[in-house]
Design goal:
By secondary structure, the protein is mainly alpha-helical. It has one domain: lambda repressor-like DNA-binding domains (434 Repressor (Amino-terminal Domain), Orthogonal Bundle), CATH 1.10.260. It has five helices and two strands. It has a two-stranded antiparallel ribbon. The chain is elongated.
Length: about 90
């Protein structure tokens, strides 16, 4: 357990908000993301509005299309803090 870094939450962003932010930064509409992922637009809307849980498989699918790591979507707002040398 010597080589680990503690994570701490730095902002409050929901999973749905993280999906929306990354999608909008890439200038994609929900419909365009639906076409890229095969996930219905209504499901993407539900995820972004925190009415539908993202789930691991959907997170992987969305992450591939949004060109990010699934953890970015599932654990938004977390920062990894470097472990200080003792």
């Amino acid at each position: 357990m010597k080589n680990y870094r503690k994570a701490r939450k730095i902002i409050d962003v929901s999973v749905g908000e993280s999906v929306r932010i990354i999608r909008e930064l890439q200038e994609l509409s929900q419909t365009e993301l639906a076409e890229l992922t095969g996930i219905p637009q209504s499901t993407i809307s539900g995820i972004e509005n925190d009415r539908i849980n993202i789930g691991v498989e959907r997170a992987k699918t969305l992450a591939r299309s949004l060109k990010c790591h699934p953890a970015v979507l599932i654990f938004p707002g977390w920062e990894i803090k470097e472990k200080s040398a003792a």
